Amino acid sequence: METLERFVPFGVKKPLDAVLSVPAAVTSPRTAVILTHGAGGDMNFIHLVSLGQYLASQGFICLRFTCKGLNLGYRVKAYRAVWVLNETDVNTDSFPGRSMGCRAAVALDDALVQGVICLSFPLHPPGQTHKHTQRTEDLRMLSERVRVLFVSGTDDNNHKEMKASTDVLWLQGGSHGLTVKGRSESSVLEEVNLKVIKWLHEQKDSTEYVLFIMCLCW
């Protein structure tokens, strides 16, 4: 596996930091996974690093990047910039990809989003349902052909209202930060990584081009 640092040109502002993980042998030439973080953190968040490296070790090309802006419009523009990098830095005939972060991805181009993976996505934080209507509405607007995987340690049944095909990995005793009392961080990461790679293999067998988005929400 080769790890390459990339700097994504983004207007007149500071370039976006990115890391491209290239497998030694690509086993899925038509599947790309692009990873991003939630409102906090950056591309070096341990869950993203662990998953990105694991996916690359399994033959999936992975790009993760940092986008600090909290404004949806700003993030959509940043994601477009990342897509331009993909077009010039990666063979897009073999590795089609779109930006990630569920809301920005839908705003960017819903027609090209094939799958969304949400780590600890807080559909409705306890007692705050009225403040997060748009967050769940964006997910419900995903078309029926889009597959969605939720990885969560909290109980939230709102995914049942979605048209998109959904799968859920519940981490028994897991917190919103995907930590489990009495379990090591490495064992939790391994469980998440194995579930995600299994899910990706299931999806890529059902379509010619698979574009996946990783949304890490904190």
Automatic annotation (TrEMBL):
It comes from the Eukaryota. Signal peptide: none annotated. Residues 30-191 form the KANL3/Tex30 alpha/beta hydrolase-like domain. PANTHER family: TESTIS DEVELOPMENT PROTEIN PRTD, TESTIS-EXPRESSED PROTEIN 30. This is Testis expressed 30. It comes from Gouania willdenowi. The lineage of its organism: Eukaryota, Metazoa, Chordata, Craniata, Vertebrata.
